[in-house]
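Researcher: Next sequence.
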Amino acid sequence: MPARESEAIILRSFPLGEGDRLISFFSRTEGRLRGVASGARKPKSRFGSTLEMFSYVRIWYFERETRDLVRINQCDLIESFMDAQRDYVSTLAFALLSEATEGVLGEREAAEANFRLLLVAARALKSGASSVLVLAYFAFWSVRLGGWMPRLDRCSLCNTELGEAAYVSGERGVICGNCRLPGERAISQQALAVMRRMATEKLESLMTAIAGDRNVSEVMDFMFDVIEFHIEKRLQSRRLLEEHLEHHL
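Model: Next structure:
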């Protein structure tokens, strides 16, 4: 089969054998794929740094119908995000973007909107934007693109208009006080307002308007709860980020 060519974002990279790498990448046209880059760990590899996490590349690869893994032939770097992973928090933020993308999207599921969202989030982190805001925006739109977004103005269960007291659950959505179950946490009206803004405004405008807003962390927590419920998996990088933020507030 002739080589396929696509823009792609490298999600993760693992050592394989003595000198190869197993690569998880998000193709703009073909969706999430996994492939082997032969010789990528050797000193004079033709791949250079193009297979580092979150490299935005043009990739050439071969695939066979009888094999799950494609064979990566060449990568040309379009944009690097290596320097943006400058500290522990930034590294965890990129890892969470990667892990959530792998969880939300099935293999070989073309998703142009998700690709653009991932690139927007990565570039915002690279520009120095608040990690919490970027992750909240990314999670919000991942939920919306997945078709999992609950109503933000009415109780998900009884359909009554939400009053001052509102509560959230990854499984049940936004809930009024009458329908709340023990353990479901409160969410502020300000956080609900932030989500409504995210539905209509670009991330770059939100970066100047609500960066540092304490209500953004409520949005991030709720949206990742929804993601974890639907993918039936805990995001390990999320746990690490939460532990770090809790200990350094």
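Model: The domain at 88-247 is CATH 1.20.1440.120 (de novo design (two linked rop proteins)). Residues 88-104 form the longest helix (17 residues).
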